Amino acid sequence: LAVLLPVIATRMHKSKQEEVHVSVSDVPTMEPSAPPSYDPRPMLEIVRERGYVRCGLRKDHIESEKGLHVGLCRAVAAVLFGDPDSFVGVSVTGSNRFEQLNDWAVDLLLYGDT
């Protein structure tokens, strides 16, 4: 008993020091979550309704209006709308191109990854 008392006292002291603090945000609620903030329709439906395709291109390709990537964008616009000029070039960089695509700022990414 003399040996167990110090062990029990030490463990009780440690357990008091190691109290877990739970913040209010950690506690689940019964409130429903907010609806999605994105358009759940298929991308093709959204683009057709808009009337033009937004192509993520390098700035120099947009300015020159030439090159493989601009040609691909024009081809997609021609297939979708019957008009190869039904596109808008959106300038993207090597560091933000996937973010732009993920945020739906562009419909089609035509950079070095194509």
List the defining traits of the structure above.
alpha/beta, flat, three-stranded parallel beta sheet, 114 residues, 5 helices
What characteristic shape results from the CA principal axes?
flat
Which structural class fits the helix and strand makeup? alpha/beta
Percent range for helical residues? 40-55%
How far is the first residue's CA from the last residue's CA? 76 Å
- Work out the helix count: 5
Present the secondary structure layout.
Elements: H1 4-17, H2 43-50, E1 53-57, H3 59-64, H4 68-81, E2 87-91, H5 97-102, E3 108-109
Parallel strand pairs: 1-2, 1-3
Would you kindly provide a written description of the structure presented here, covering whatever features stand out?
This protein has 114 residues and is of the alpha/beta class. Helices cover 42% and strands 11% of the residues. It has helices at 4-17, 43-50, 59-64, 68-81, 97-102; strands spanning 53-57, 87-91, 108-109. It has a three-stranded parallel sheet with strand order 2-1-3. The chain is flat, with a radius of gyration of 29 Å. The mean pLDDT is 80.
Short summary of the structure?
The protein has helices spanning 4-17, 43-50, 59-64, 68-81, 97-102; strands spanning 53-57, 87-91, 108-109. The protein has 114 residues and is of the alpha/beta class. The protein is flat and about 55 Å long.
